[in-house]
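As a warm-up, study this chain.
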Amino acid sequence: MTEHPQPFRDPRLPFAERVDDLLRRLTPDERVAMLHQFAPAVDRLGLAAFRTGQEALHGVAWMGEATVFPQAVGLGATWNDDLVRRIGEAVGDEVRTKRAHDDRVGLNVWAPTVNLLRHPLWGRGEEGYSEDAGLTSAIAVAYTRGLRGDHPHYWRTAPVLKHWLAHNNETDRDTSSSSVRPRVLHEYDLRAFRDAVRAGAVAGVMPAYNLVNGRPNHVSPLLSRHLRSWTEQPLAVCSDAGAPTNLVDSEHYFDTHEEATAAALRAGVDSFTDHGQDSSVMTGRIQGALKRGLLDENDIDTAVRRLLHMRFALGEFDPGLDPYAVTDALDTEAHRALALEAAEQAVVLLKNDGLLPLDPDAGRTVAVVGLLADACKLDWYSGTLIHRSTPLEGLRERFGADHVIHAEGADLIRVRCADGWLRIPEADPAGEAARGSEGALDPALLAGRTDLPPLICADTPSELVLVEWGGGVITLREPEGRYLSVAEDGFVRASADEPGGWIVQETFRWEAVEGHAGGHRLLHIGTGGYVSVAADGVKVAAPDEKDPAAATVFEIEVTERGEDAVARAAAAADTVVVVVGNDPHINGRETEDRATLDLPAQQERLWRAAHAANPRTVLAVTSAYPYALADAAATLPALLWTAHGGQAAGTALARVLAGDVSPAGRLPQTWYASDAELPDLLDYDIIGSRQTYLYYNGTPLYPFGHGLTYTDFTYSDLTAVREGDQLHVSLNVTNTGAVASDEVAQLYVRAVAPSVPLPLRQLAGHRRLHLAPGAAERLAFTVPVEELGHWDVAHGRWTVEPGAYEIQAGASSTDIRGVTVVTVDGEPAGPRPVLVHGLEAADYDEQLGTAIVDRAKTDGDAVTATAEANELLYRRCDFGAGADGVEVLASGEGAVLITVDGTTVTVPVPATDGPYDHRALHAGLTASGAGDLRITLRGTVRLARLGFTGAGA
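Now compare it with the structure written out below.
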C-alpha cells in the first residue's frame, strides 16, 4: 500500500485527521487568507484556489446557461419532497458539470433559502418555500439531500442555508432589528433551520443582514448555542456579501472594523464575503485584530478547520475517489422533463366553477391575453434560459396556432417633446450578447449596452409599449423589441431584453407638471434623475444635476389602450385566459419590499375588460407572491396561480388548462383578502399579532394548503395511536372522481384546551400521491409527540402539556375531512417559579409597545419601550409563601413600574453609563401565592431581569 508523505492526501485517514495535518502545514498568513470568500491557492502544497458561494436557488444561477426550474416558492407549492430532491440532484449535477468547464463555478452552493414566508409583502418571498416551518423544513431537507448526494463521505455540492435568522424585510434590512420573543424563536424561526441541519445534508449557513433582538446576526450567540448543537458535523458559516463591513459602516455596532471582524469570527463566522474578489481588506482586518489581541490563533484555526473539512468532503483532495468528479449532465433530456414536471406540479387551481379543463380537441378558440401572456420571466437568482416556454407558446402548441388569439394588453403610446417626438433610431439589433449570458461572479457589476444609439427627438414618432407595474412604476419598450434602459453614460436606449440588474435601469415614473396641462416629467427610478432631450440624444440627468425644472416636459398620446385590445380578443374567442402577475425585478425583490397586495391597476382593468366581453374568462396568476384578488375570486369562474415556472412554465400551464395534467399544487402561504388583514412588516411576533395560518383567525381569501383538482377525493378511517414518543397516524384517501390526479393529503394537530395561546392548527405531515379513478391508498404518518409541544417561557424549556389533542386530516388547513383525538398524560408545568429563579424580561406571555434588545454585545436580551403605552405581562408568577422585595437589573434612564396583586411599585432607574451598563436596583414589593405580574417601562430603560427576595429571608 502506498505511503503518503503528506497525510492530508491519504484517503485512508478520516477527514478530521487529514484536516489537522493540512492545517499544521499552513503558515499563519495562509490560514488567514482562507477566511475570505476567495481563498487563494497555496502552490507549495498543491492547494487550488477555493471560492465559497455558488448561487443555486432553483438551478445554477449567474454562470450562464442552465436548466431553470420554478422559483423556490413554486417548489414549495408542489408539496412534493421526492420531486424537490430530484431537482436538487439535477442542480447539483449541473453545478459539477459547469465546474468541470469553468473554474469560476463553485461547489459550495448558497441554497436553499429557509426564511419563512411570514409576511406576503416581503420582497424576497419568491426565495422561500412556505410560511410553515414544517413544510419549509421538509422541502429544504429534500433539496439539500439532492444537492449533497448519497455518498457517505463525499458530497456532490455543499449546501448553505440562507438567511439566519428572522429575516423577512428588505426595508432597512441592514439596520432593522427583528424583535423575536423566545416562543417565536423556538417554535418558528429556529425550526426552519434545525430540521434541515439535523438531516445531515447541510454544510453551513449564511447569517442575514438584519439584527435580531438588537444584535446583528453576524455576531449572534445563537450560532453556537443552537446551530452547532444540532449536529456533530463541522458547519461553515459564510457571511452575506458586505455584511462584515455593515457592522461598522451602517449598523455602527462596533467602532472599528478590527473589533467587528473579531466579534464575527468569535461568534462563529468562518468565511467573509466582502469587497468582492479583493481579499486584502478582510484579511488585513483579521491581521489587525490579531495584533490587537482581539483574536488568537485558535480562533483562526477553528474557522479554517471547518472550511477545510468542507473542501475534503467535496473531494478536492481525492479526485480519483470522488464519485461526482466526472459528471456531464447539463440540459439533459431528463432535466428538461424534470423542469416540466416541476412546473406542472407547482400550478395551484384556486377556483373552478366547471370551466376547466378546456377541451383542446373541440376546435374552439382560446384568447390568451395579459401582460405576461407571452412572457417567461426570470428572477435575480435564475440561470440563463436554454429553453423557454410562454403561456402563449404553450397554448398554441397544445390547442393549435389557428385556435389561439393573442393580445398583450399593454398601452401603446407616442411621446411628444417640444421639438417633435421621441424616436428610437434605426440600429442593428445584433451586437453585444444578452446581459449575463456568459455568467458573472457578481452580476451586480454587469453594465448596460452602449453600442446602440440613444433615443432622439424627431419629426416622426416611435410607438412605445407602456406597462404600469403598480405604484406608478412603468416600463417602456419597442412593440416587438427591447426595453428603454439607461447605461453608465446616462443615455436612454432601447437596449435591454428584459428589466433586470441589481439596480434596475428599465423602470421609470411619470410625474405631472403643475401648470402644464397634460405635461409630464419622466423620472428614471434607477438613478433618480429626470429624462431630458439634448443635442446628442435623450439622457438622464447626472447625479449632481437632478433639478426637476431642467427636465424635459413630455406629452403622452395613447394610440391604443390595452383593455380595448383585450376586449376585442376576448369577444372573438370561446374562452379567455388572462395571464397577470409580476416582473420579479420590479416592485418586490431583494432590496425592495412590496407596498400592497393589490394587483396593479392596469392588470385589474384587463381581466375586467376580458370578462365583460366574455364571461368564460380564466385568470392565470403568474407571480412570486400572493395578491388580494377578492373581486376576481367573486366574479370569475376559474382562477389559477403559479410562481414563475422556469423554462417549461408555458407548456405546463397549457397542459393543465387542457386537462392533460390535473392540477394539484397547494398554496404554501396564506392569501389574505386585503392589506387591512396584514400586520406591520417589521412585526415578527406571529403569536401576538396573529400571523400566518397558525394564528390568523380571520377569513383568508385562500387558506394555507388550498388547491383544487379536476376530480374528487374522500378521506376516511383516520386513526392515531401513541407508542412511546411517537404518534402513528393513518388514513385512507380515495379518488372518487373520473380523472386520475395527484392529491396532497395534509395532517394537522391542535391542542383542544391549551393553557397558553397555541396554533389554531399546525401542519404535522403531508403526502403527495397519485390515484387513478376509483383507486385508494392508506397513508401512514409518524408524528413525534414533542411536535405537540411549545416553548414554556415560565420554565425555559420545551414542554408538551397534558391534555387532549386533535389529529386532523384534510385537503387544506381549513378543509378538514377527518378528526381523531389523542390524550397526552402527565403533570402540568405549574406556575412560574419567580421566587426561586427570578424573571427574565424577554420571557413575557404578552406585550404591548415594547421590543427585545441586546443586553450586551455578546449575549443576553433586555426589553425596552417603543411606545408610551406599553406593558409586559407575565402570567401565573408563583411567589410561594411571600416576597417582600424586588431586584431590577436595568440600564438607561427612567423607571420600571411593577404591578402585582393590584399594587404598583415604581422603581426609579437613574441614568447609567450607556445601554449595556445594567445595574441592580432594589425596592420593596409584597406578593404571595400565584398571580399575574405586569410591567410598564418609562424613559429609555432597558430591563434585563427581575429577582425577588422571600419574606423573612
